[in-house]
Amino acid sequence: MEKPATSGIIRTSFGLKDSIKPQLEQSYSSPMVDGLRANGFTCKEGRVELFLAEEFGFCYGVDRAIDYAYQTRAQFPDRRIFLTNEIIHNPRVNAELAQMGIEFLPPLTEGDCDVSSLHAKDVVLMPAFGTTVKLQKKLEDIGCVIVDTTCGSVMSVWKRVESYSRDGFTSVIHGKYNHEETLATSSRALKYPSGKYLVIRDKSEAQKVCDYIEQGGERAAFLKEFSWCSSAGFDPDRDLQKMGCANQTTMLSSESLEIAHMLKSALEKKYGEAQLPACFRHFDTICSATQDRQDAVMRLMQKKIDLMLVVGGYNSSNTGHLAEMSAEYCPSYHVKDADCLKSADEIEYKVIFKEDIRIAKNWLANGNLKVGITAGASTPNRVIEEVITRLFALANCR
């Protein structure tokens, strides 16, 4: 049997899965959630009828990243281990890793880290979101052991934008510019000299790009608005002529597809349908797990839910989108854990896609309630169980 690698960039298991399994189960598994899954994703306690989305919680990429992090600690018990950023966007998981002695490298700007204290014998974990080309190169130059837990779906997007870069297409990325994944992806868009990128946050920004393509405009004004989320030397008169669409894998799928259609239509109006193959490319790069969780929420809404709890880290993009979708149908609260359920009268929640953390009053209505619950791809089942337990206790105490 081949001996696991202990140097360079490691992208495979150390073969220690069985030894860390009890530790992972103790921290993250939930018999209650397993029971709900086996019982048709529903149960009733007192006045609350609970419906769990059929797709929720840890996805394969997150599960793999956590597994590799725990295996790395077991493989290198006496070495210093660092993370370039949160392994995933869940405070419980990152706190557990910190208790295991895994430290965070001091953050700098644009997805970079201060690596001045690192030595060749140190071990560095790259998170599920990936890292920028610049940071990876710095780590390689130091010679430390790099354990790469980047999600395969993210790496697929990288390959796509690298192909755009090679062929002289500007990568237009639907995402949040300061999100770790988008920073890593945009850095790959510069692999070749002809590579450029522009990050678009939403349909409103996409419309401004479309207007410039179709009608032209003030170049200085465009650059003022988009300079912070575009590649150095970006020129809208030159770099909006050939575009390839990509996206942060956790964005709202329907919005990503609509933005791609908007850009395609703008280029068609500008250059004609016959020229589209030469100036526009698009491949849907929303990850399947993200799509599955969004589809599951839509199915859940057909049950005429009275109240929705969406569980996940406050900086989790995919969790925020689940809350956004739910809010179109019923009161929806994005909570990070059971502590957010303060009482039967108060709940702490994150305002959808804002930094605001607020307290809502009278969130639990009287009478029988149909409550839906789902969780972002970074949320452990144990946290979901704690939220359900707290919900039942508060709703049935009156």
Q: Which helices and strands occur, and which strands form pairs?
A:
Elements (H helix, E strand, L loop, with lengths): L8 E2 L6 H12 L2 H8 L3 E4 L2 E5 L7 H16 L5 E3 L7 H9 L2 E3 L18 E4 L6 H10 L2 E4 L3 H15 L3 E5 L5 H9 L7 E5 L2 H13 L3 H8 L9 H4 L3 E5 L5 H19 L4 H4 E3 L5 H14 L5 E5 L5 H11 L4 E4 L10 E5 L6 E5 L7 E7 L5 H15 L3
Parallel strand pairs: 1-7, 3-16, 4-5, 4-6, 6-7, 8-9, 8-10, 10-11, 12-13, 12-16
Antiparallel strand pairs: 2-3, 14-15
Give a quick precis of the structure.
With 398 residues, the chain is of the alpha/beta class.
Alpha carbon gyration radius? 23 Å
Strand order of the largest sheet: 1-7-6-4-5
Number of H/I helices: 15
Looking at the structure, the CATH topology of the largest domain is Cobalt-precorrin-4 Transmethylase, domain 1
Specify the overall morphology. Answer: globular
From the N-terminal CA to the C-terminal CA, the straight-line distance is 61 Å
- Indicate the structural class: alpha/beta
Mean pLDDT score: 95
CATH level 4 superfamily of the largest domain: 4-hydroxy-3-methylbut-2-enyl diphosphate reductase, catalytic domain
CATH architectural arrangement of the largest domain: 3-Layer(aba) Sandwich
Please indicate the percent range of residues in DSSP E strands (runs of 2 or more). Answer: 15-25%
Oligomeric assembly: single chain
The biggest beta sheet reads:
5 strands, parallel
Based on DSSP secondary structure assignment, what is the total number of beta strands?
A: 16
The structural domain count equals 3
| Helix proportion range | 40-55%
Low-confidence stretches: 1-5
Q: Which CATH class of the largest domain?
A: Alpha Beta
